[in-house]
Structures are given as structure tokens and as C-alpha cells.
Amino acid sequence: MIDLLQLQKRVYQNKIAKGFNVTDVFQEFCFIYGELSEACDAYRKKKDDLGEELADVALYLIGLSELLGINLEEEIMCKMEKNEKRIYENRNGVLTKVEE
Fold first, then answer.
1. DSSP H or E segment with residue 52
2. If we measure between CA atoms, which residue out of 78, 85, 38, 41 comes closest to residue 60?
3. Which of 30, 58, 67, 98 is the most exposed place for a label (fewest CB within 10 A)?
């Protein structure tokens, strides 16, 4: 099992060590978007590096979380609990949230 908080710190330290951005939040969002686009392209074209592209998306997101001081593991667990309690129903072919 991965300790996501430790991984956040490791990703952040690697960014510092390599001289990557650790100050421009908007730039990091753009990088995440770019990596997600690359992953989508890899999936669409059935490329062998899809897993690596998804890892890039995750690493940028994890790094951004550390940059913003957000414990991503804690946030993910809280969100999962919230999602698991939600109730959805199919309305005219559209899955719609009806209760939290």
C-alpha cells in the first residue's frame, strides 16, 4: 500500500531537486490537463505507454496537492465515503443523483 502523504512529499522534493515549477499553481493545472490529454491520446491510439501517461497525471496531481498543502489521501477517503452514500437513479437514460 502506498502512503500517499509520503509520496506527495517525495514528488515535491523531486520537483525541487530537478528545478521544476513549485510556485505557479495555474501552470501545474495546465500540466495536469496536458498529461491527461496525452493519456487520452494513448488510449485512443492503443499505445503501449497508457499506464505511464496515467502515472504522469497522478504524479502531477499529487505534486499539486503538496504544493497547495492538501492531504490528498485524506481528501480521497472522505470523498469515497461521500460517494458511497449517494443514491442515483436512471432518469430518461441519465444517471442522476437523488440523495446524499
1. helix 50-68
2. 38
3. 98
| Distance between CA atoms of residues 24 and 13, nearest Å | 16
Q: Report which DSSP code applies to 48.
A: T
**Contact partners, residue 40, CB within 8 Å, separation at least 6:** none
Alpha carbon of 14 to those of 9, 11, 42, 74: distances in Å?
Answer: 9, 5, 25, 22
Going by the DSSP 8-state scheme, the letter that residue 100 receives in this structure is: -
Per-residue model confidence as pLDDT tens digits over 10-22 = 999 999 999 999 9
- Sign (positive or negative) of CA dihedral 54, 55, 56, 60: positive
Interacting residues of 78 by C-beta distance below 8 A, sequence separation 6+: none
Altogether, the residues listed in the chain come to a count of: 100
Query: What single DSSP character describes residue 88?
Result: E
Q: pTM for this one?
A: 0.88
